[in-house]
Amino acid sequence: MQELVNILQYLKDHPEVTWSGAGLTGLGVLYFLITRLFAPLFRKGSGRDVGGHVTIHPPVPPELLAKYAEELGETKQIIEGFLGILLEQEVPPDQWKAKLREIAVTHKELLARLATVQSEDPEVQRLKQEAKQAIEAGEYTKAEDLLNQAEALDLKAIEEMEKTARQRCISAATTNADQAKLQEVQLRYAKAAEYWQKAASLLPEGEKKDRIYYLNEAGNGLYRIAQYREALPLLEQSLAISQEIEDRSQEDTTLNNIG
């Protein structure tokens, strides 16, 4: 009874909701009253089926569905789902018209996004197409699950690509170290130092021991040809990393190289 009093007081304070041109039709208000007052007695209201489509009990009057379907350019099934969302989120009746338009616009924008899938993965394309079909049917929970699956595939691919890229970076660094040794065989110390520095720069984060070694070798090569000013910053970088990882052996070696 208190619920009835509250709703009647609400309607008294907001007379605009009873006029079709200013918010909600009289039929809509009647449906709102029935849904809020009597449905709980029968454990009814709005809910979602297994696909996530919002269902409403008692059913929405056909006249109300037809009115909003015509205004918003959607099917009656979709409009019923939109109305179910309003009930599920307890949107006040004077906001229904505006919120229905907002939901309809967002619904169309989402479908437009999914119409142009930006993926080269056939499985991701399939999942997003199925998600689009689910959204067109108002099965939002199903669409959410399908999009989660698509995201999981992309994240897995990213992880594999990052792993491959890391391995390639280490391989490229090693190749530059080989090049440096090749230059040293020919007593081309300046050229060797360039390769050692490039090898150090190519190493992924975390490969600190190898970076210490490469920087030390670059500095030593420059020392051999008396390029002390150029060598010192490289040895200081090596020393800083050695201290960071608390590698006393490498720290001592680098300090010895600095002299």
Q: Would you mind describing this structure in some detail?
A:
The structure is a single chain. It contains eleven helices and two strands, in the order ααββααααααααα. By secondary structure, the protein is mainly α. The chain has two domains: 2-116, no CATH class; 168-258, Tetratricopeptide repeat domain (Serine Threonine Protein Phosphatase 5, Tetratricopeptide repeat, Alpha Horseshoe). A hairpin with a 5-residue loop joins strand 1 (46-48) and strand 2. The longest helix is centred in the middle third of the chain and has 46 residues, at 140-185.
Short description:
The chain has 259 residues and is an all-alpha fold. The protein has helices at residues 2-13, 26-37, 62-72, 76-88, 96-115, 122-136, 140-185, 189-202, 208-224, 228-244, 248-258; strands spanning 46-48, 54-56. Strand 1 (46-48) and strand 2 (54-56) form a beta hairpin.
Tally of helical runs: 11
Helix-strand sequence: HHEEHHHHHHHHH
Q: Please tell me what the overall shape is.
A: rod-shaped
State the secondary-structure class: mainly alpha
Strand content: under 5%
Number of strands: 2
Summed up, the domain count is 2
Helical amount among residues, as a percent range? over 70%
Please give the largest β-sheet: 2 strands, antiparallel
Cα distance, first to last residue? 92 Å
Q: Radius of gyration in whole Å, from Cα?
A: 34 Å
Overall pLDDT metric: 81
- List low-confidence stretches: 16-25, 37-45
Helices, strands, pairings?
Layout: H1 2-13, H2 26-37, E1 46-48, E2 54-56, H3 62-72, H4 76-88, H5 96-115, H6 122-136, H7 140-185, H8 189-202, H9 208-224, H10 228-244, H11 248-258
Antiparallel strand pairs: 1-2
Helix pairs in contact: 3-4, 4-5, 5-6, 6-7, 7-8, 8-9, 9-10, 10-11
